[in-house]
Amino acid sequence: QVQLVESGGGLVQAGGSLRLACAVSGRTFSSYNMGWFRQAPGKEREFVAWISWNGIITRYADSVKGRFTISRDNAKSTVYLQMNSLKFEDTAVYYCAAQTSGLQRYDYWGQGTQVTVSS
Fold first, then answer.
1. Which tens digits make up the pLDDT trace of 24-49?
2. By C-alpha distance, which of 98, 93, 50, 49 is closest to 77?
């Protein structure tokens, strides 16, 4: 069983920064591709960022490109999301998710961490 636990959310002023972390249990974290998603009130969950198992390839939603950075530390079984120049519209619950099967679906999800950006 793979478990994901997010941390690092909170309240920040617009223009500020936060770093989210997602600690992953599982013997083969280094083989998982990882993603971050978010869901704002009244909206559907949306893709934010993705990182390959070896950290070489990253992808971002257009709305966060240039402001957010996804990274990972396989020795710590943790994936990060550095969020800079935060905007009010970044307010959401942020979830990390793991692709463990080698397919494009996400097999495991965390419980989410709230990020609130005040304008």
1. 997 799 999 999 999 999 999 999 99
2. 98
Contacts of 35 (CB under 8 A, 6+ apart): 47, 48, 49, 50, 51, 96, 97, 98, 99, 106
pLDDT tens-digit series, residues 46-92: 999 999 999 999 999 999 999 999 999 999 999 999 999 999 999 99
- SS3 readout for the chain: CCCEEEECCEEEECCCCEEEEEEECCCCHHHCEEEEEEECCCCCCEEEEEECCCCCCEEECCCCCCCEEEEEECCCCEEEEEECCCCHHHCEEEEEEEECCCCCCCCEECCCEEEEEEC
